Amino acid sequence: MRYRLSTTAQARNELRNLPGHVRQVAVRMVNDLAEDPRPPEARELREKPGSYRIRLQKWRLIYRVYDEDGAVVLLRVRLKTGPEIYEDIE
Question: What is the pLDDT of residue 67?
């Protein structure tokens, strides 16, 4: 099953502000989530079931999977500074 992709406005802005070479890889990774929303490198966030993160160098792609709707929503693209980067994720 192919999932529908969407991004929050904040995630779109964060993607635009990534360095060019990282942005290209990030967009490719996000597009791949439509085919496999839980790739082997994805980790579910401990206190946020259904939310995942994928590492991309110093950045984290944070997204949520809605299986019942067949949707993946990119929530944030953040520079990893510590565990607090996940605190305000829905």
Answer: 93
Q: Is residue 88 part of a domain?
A: no
Q: Given the structure tokens 């929503």, which residue do they identify?
A: 73
How many other C-beta atoms can be found within 10 angstroms of the C-beta atom of residue 27?
12
Q: Which candidate, 58, 50, 1, places its Cα nearest to that of 26?
A: 58
CATH number of the domain at 53, please. Answer: 3.30.2310.20
Give the span between the Cα atoms of 41 and 13, in whole angstroms: 24
The encoded tokens of residue 20 equal 């060019």
d(CA 59, CA 62): 10
Closest CA to 31 of 66, 63, 69: 63
Domain-located, residue 52:
yes
pTM: 0.91
6-19 per-position pLDDT tens digit? 999 999 999 999 99
Its domain, for residue 13, covers 4-81
